[in-house]
Specification:
It is a single chain. This protein is mainly α. It contains eight helices and no strands. Helix 1 packs parallel to helix 4 and helix 2 crosses helix 3. The longest helix is centred in the middle third of the chain and has 49 residues. The model has no long low-confidence stretch (mean pLDDT 84).
């Protein structure tokens, strides 16, 4: 038993969904820079052999209705969800923008994770290289190493010690301060 809006109102709402679907089909197709022929080829590749450029044209003109199964295939080929096809473009745009932002943040999180992994790897590598330098130069002052070598070794060891005493979060904080123009760490 139908207990929602009366039949006339439901028919009006459904007509709006159909009009939105047709308009969104064209909008999403054009955002992909597809011609009607390109979209027909995509539909055929997805298993809809009967879809041709003329089919797409007739749908977009409103001359041919879209079956529910076809609507689902069209949304799939266009890379959108059915709800995006039936809402007015201006109504679904904020949701699409939020969805894009969420995906971008996920990608950036992965990049950040990779960078932290690399940061920790290089910290470990520097520790190993410091041990190698210490073994190589132990007592070097009396075994023919020139003073410039000893001075450079000591400078690099001090620079490495400063870097190794920091965490990657401290480096991120420093980066954020420099991005905001706060070079000395004061607000």
């Amino acid at each position: 038993m139908f207990d929602g809006m009366n039949g006339k109102n439901w028919a009006i709402q459904s007509a709006g969904y159909e009009a939105n679907f047709i308009a969104n089909m064209r909008i999403f197709r054009e955002r992909l820079s597809w011609s009607q022929g390109d979209m027909a080829k995509q539909m055929q590749a997805a298993g809809w052999e009967g879809f041709h450029q003329t089919t797409i044209s007739r749908i977009e003109k409103g001359d041919r209705p879209v079956r529910l199964s076809e609507a689902s295939g069209i949304a799939l080929v266009l890379g959108v969800e059915m709800w995006q096809m039936v809402l007015a473009d201006e109504a679904s745009r904020p949701l699409r923008e939020l969805e894009k932002s969420i995906e971008q943040l996920r990608r950036l999180g992965l990049i950040l994770g990779e960078n932290v992994r690399d940061y920790l790897f290089y910290q470990s590598l520097i520790r190993k290289e410091l041990d190698d330098i210490d073994e190589l130069t132990w007592g070097a002052e009396g075994h023919g190493f020139n003073p410039q070598f000893i001075q450079k070794r000591d400078e690099l060891k001090m620079a490495a010690a400063r870097l190794l005493s920091r965490t990657y979060m401290e480096d991120i904080d420093e980066f954020m301060r420099s991005e905001n123009g706060d070079q000395d760490g004061t607000e």
